[in-house]
Design brief:
With 55 residues, the chain is an all-alpha fold. It is flat and about 45 Å long. The model has no long low-confidence stretch (mean pLDDT 85).
Protein backbone atom coordinates (compact mmCIF):
# COMPACT_ATOMS: atom_id res chain seq x y z
CA UNK A 1 0.00 0.00 0.00
CA UNK A 2 1.24 3.43 -0.96
CA UNK A 3 1.69 5.94 1.85
CA UNK A 4 0.32 9.46 1.65
CA UNK A 5 3.85 10.82 1.16
CA UNK A 6 4.68 8.30 -1.58
CA UNK A 7 1.49 9.19 -3.44
CA UNK A 8 2.26 12.90 -3.16
CA UNK A 9 5.78 12.38 -4.52
CA UNK A 10 4.40 10.31 -7.41
CA UNK A 11 1.72 12.91 -8.22
CA UNK A 12 4.12 15.86 -7.98
CA UNK A 13 6.70 14.05 -10.10
CA UNK A 14 4.15 13.48 -12.85
CA UNK A 15 3.10 17.14 -12.74
CA UNK A 16 6.69 18.42 -12.88
CA UNK A 17 7.81 16.02 -15.61
CA UNK A 18 9.47 18.10 -18.32
CA UNK A 19 10.31 21.03 -16.04
CA UNK A 20 13.93 22.10 -15.71
CA UNK A 21 15.67 21.80 -12.34
CA UNK A 22 15.45 25.57 -11.95
CA UNK A 23 11.72 25.59 -12.70
CA UNK A 24 11.14 22.77 -10.22
CA UNK A 25 13.07 24.66 -7.55
CA UNK A 26 10.94 27.77 -8.14
CA UNK A 27 7.69 25.78 -8.01
CA UNK A 28 8.66 23.94 -4.82
CA UNK A 29 9.76 27.21 -3.19
CA UNK A 30 6.37 28.74 -3.99
CA UNK A 31 4.54 25.67 -2.70
CA UNK A 32 6.55 25.78 0.51
CA UNK A 33 5.75 29.49 1.01
CA UNK A 34 2.03 28.91 0.43
CA UNK A 35 1.89 25.90 2.73
CA UNK A 36 3.74 27.81 5.45
CA UNK A 37 1.33 30.73 5.10
CA UNK A 38 -1.65 28.37 5.31
CA UNK A 39 -0.17 26.73 8.43
CA UNK A 40 0.21 30.13 10.11
CA UNK A 41 -3.38 31.08 9.23
CA UNK A 42 -4.75 27.82 10.67
CA UNK A 43 -2.63 28.20 13.80
CA UNK A 44 -3.78 31.81 14.24
CA UNK A 45 -7.42 30.73 13.92
CA UNK A 46 -6.94 27.96 16.51
CA UNK A 47 -5.26 30.33 18.95
CA UNK A 48 -7.99 32.95 18.44
CA UNK A 49 -10.70 30.35 19.10
CA UNK A 50 -8.90 28.99 22.14
CA UNK A 51 -8.56 25.59 20.43
CA UNK A 52 -4.82 25.28 20.88
CA UNK A 53 -2.43 24.21 23.58
CA UNK A 54 -0.41 27.34 22.70
CA UNK A 55 -3.07 29.75 23.95
Amino acid sequence: METKQQKAVKDITSILNGFTASEIQEVLFSVNEECSANYVLVLDEKVASGDSCLS
